User: Fold these one by one.
Assistant:
Number 1:
Amino acid sequence: MLIDENNVQELLVKASENKAVFIYFFVKDAPECQKATDAVKANVPENNEYVSLAEADVSSEVGQAIAMQLGLRSVPTLVVLKKAQPVDALQGDDIPVKVAELVKKYMPSKADNLMREALEAEAQNNLAEAMQKALSAYEEDSNRMDLKFMLARICIKTKNLEKAHELLDNAGREEQSSQEYKDLISSLTLAEQAADSPQIRDLQEAFAKNPQDMEIAKQLAIALSEGGRHEEALNMLFEILKKDLGNAEIKKTFLDILSTLSGNPLQKTFRRKLYTLMY
């Protein structure tokens, strides 16, 4: 949108509080601005959640005043404002070559978008979708502490305690010094204590004494899974199925546990194992 005396405050000051505002300084119909104008129009979104475009014709009084305030001496020039302060700029022939990369710098990455979707799903208590999105976000950029901690938190919520350990056990010094890391370790400790309940210990003892009792085996697998010990439960049931694939109750329990693991890599691993047995 072209800047004038009526919208300058809205387009530049207010808008730049929440997004990156790209101000394009040019002279209308000037041949030296044509390539830059075409590149800016093609690459800078007019207005979205993250970026907006404001055009300043320096042959106008308002455009000239803004250019002088920013200390510009030539056109075409592209200036990026954040919170009413210039943070980036391109001039002349650099604009057609570098504008796309500059815009990309201020747009969210794929990991950012996945993180937002994961947080939205988590807020709606859709933990299966949150887990899938968080895992995808972390795979996009495993060096980001915020993505690692988000995934670890959702792993604890979904009782995927093995994955939570994998993420938190090898934390760096900076990560370990953060309060969020300390809170996650506390949550993981509590989840592990809950996973080693008296009920599970009693069932383990009963199954050790009666390994042929499939009802005890089924109850133990369910209790283990509910306590977040999914891999332990699935391994136990798989060992039974290797000996007796026709055991319908054990197979159903195995599949029921798998169906609760959306977003958990164990789901694919144990489905593949079962298909290998069947086919």
Number 2:
Amino acid sequence: MVRVLIMSGYGINCEKESAHAFNIAGADSEIVHINDLISKKKKLADYDIIMFPGGFSYGDDTGSGNAFANKLRNHLWDDLLEFIKSEKLILGVCNGFQIMTHLGLFSLPSTDYGQRVHSIRWNNQNRYECRWVHLKNNNSKCVFTKGVDVTHLPVAHGEGRFFCDEKVLEELEKNNQIVFTYCDEKGNPANGVFPINPNGAMRDIAGICDSTGRIMGMMPHPERAIYSVNEPEFHLKKEISKRKNNNIDEFIETNFNIFKNAVNYFK
């Protein structure tokens, strides 16, 4: 069975939702504290997928995801590089994306792992945003997003604004590494307009992958939007379906596919 390591530590708070999403997709998930990896009670090499979940690791006191990233870099960096070289998968959501950003896991053709190429900055409106958004999948390379077009899911962050210099942006676009962008419900670009783009991200970017397509980070939370009942419009959609003598789907497949694609990669 495909084994998933759900990274945990002080301030991480989305471990159970993340483990549940992978488990119902057919994997065997285990929530592991970073200290148990450092002490060698657990080993990265024993897993097929690593997920960095959302939360507020170490209170985000030195910047969102920074302290957790430094702890991993100082103690587990060589193990993480071996994991990547083994052509396994890594997914980061929200704070997990911030951790991966600090670690420099989004390699370009011109860079190596460990070189940071972008930042995730404070939202333009300088406040925490918790709302549902739409995303457009722009990518044919990324392992996680096959079969996903437009999807609907929540954001919950104070620092979610993607930023990089123009040279990096060019390379991301050229190498097909921009995965998700904010859009309206029909898939039209947000064009930076709030609240369709909830944080002011450059080019509406909500998620990217590394040059191989096996490592992805994103700000919105697919693990919080697996079931149709999670949607704020669920009861309206249920009533519309009922009056048409239809049943509403149990899953939001476009979000569930992110986890199923990862598991199926190994099958």
Number 3:
Amino acid sequence: MKKPILFLIALLGCVSLFAQTQQERLTRHVYTLAGDSLRGRKAGSEDAAKAAAYIVAQFEEIGIQPFYEEGWYQPFERSGNTYKNVIGIIPGNDPVLKDEYIIIGAHYDHLGVRDGQIYNGADDNASGTATIIEMARILKSQQSNLKRSVIIAAFDAEEIGLWGSNYLSKKLDLSKIKLMMSIDMVGWLEKGKTLQLQGTATIKNGKRLLREEAEKMHLDIKPKDFETSIFGATDTQSFAEKGVATLYVTTGLKSPYHKPEDDPELIDYKGLDRVVDYMADVTMRCASDEDFAPSGKISPIHSGKKKTLEIAPTVSLVNANIAFPKAGFDGKSRSGVNAGVLAQVNLSSHFALETGVLYELLRSKCPDEGNLFESYLPYQQQSILVPANVLVNIGGTTGVDFFLELGGFYGRVLDAKLEGVQDNIDPNQWGLSWAVGFRLGKVMISGNRRYQLNPFFVGEGLPNAKLHAGSFTIGYYF
């Protein structure tokens, strides 16, 4: 009698598993991947390996195939450590289109344990990993309708530099990749209000396609032409930089990501369920529509190309002093500010011309002629400053461009206050300037110096003086 009973128990277990709803499975995935037992899934760790094994088990249960003949894992080495992606595939059925691919990807690693606290990473990115698992289940059940093949990629080492996705991008024939989607932090739909889709302009008629599918499900989406954030890179980056159409899918930054509080109980599982259904429908349409195609457009932050004309509002902290070069001493500097707009004309990837209009409130302390070394007179001026510079891009690391500026400036003094001699301050100020700085996407930060060449004072009997200034500038280019 024992064997029939055991068989019945096993059968009931299978029925129970089969009867689980998609939302229940998503909950199980997130609680497993983001549970304390996996200790934050630090890239390359034994805990991350356990997470990878869990993903493989789900893929095998669904019935999808390993992408590589060697098996599920795609190992790679970086900085002396070994990491591994998990790569599966659902082959398409069209004799020609099956050799084209749609990639759905999500990173499964997180931050591990820091200062004794576990960073479980439920939203970042157990939510995305659970999503691609359940998307794979839906797509596998509809495989007969797929014309293109679908690659399902769970990436390792995203948190330490997007290494997993970068490695895969180097191993594929990218001419066959029609779209790469990164599902990254999708567990807060209710509080995020909308599903953000960044990169729609890289897809031909991308916004229309995504909105049509969203309307069927009454899902609020926020389509955006391109990824623009320099602080929120995801696994699309290495593909996009090589010209592949990409879509970054997220519910935003509402969750306590990169904090110990990013735990499974905070995930919106009903919303996550809707994200899975929507993204599976989108993937199915991309993989089954013969006319689906990339647009050929790439985000400026991925292409490395700048617009011919860029405009940047800027603000600067300024320190200025009145120097007396022939006398061998200077005044004392005080803080001031300037703000305005810079215009940059990009002649090539290495050279640009820059000008602009800035309002400046500048302050300094001028030595008192009656007591040169112990007494100083406060000086303040308001002026309009017009810089004119040649900018040279001197290279840098990925995403960061360092530059050098050389040129000059003209300033028109609107108001000047210095006890006894304000009427003898030349209203025209001009001279040389230089700057060094860097750009991170659209954000520019620089340090600047300028030196007046014409006399600061005009009139007989007044000393030869120059106004010198240094500034720290932040700008944002449109």
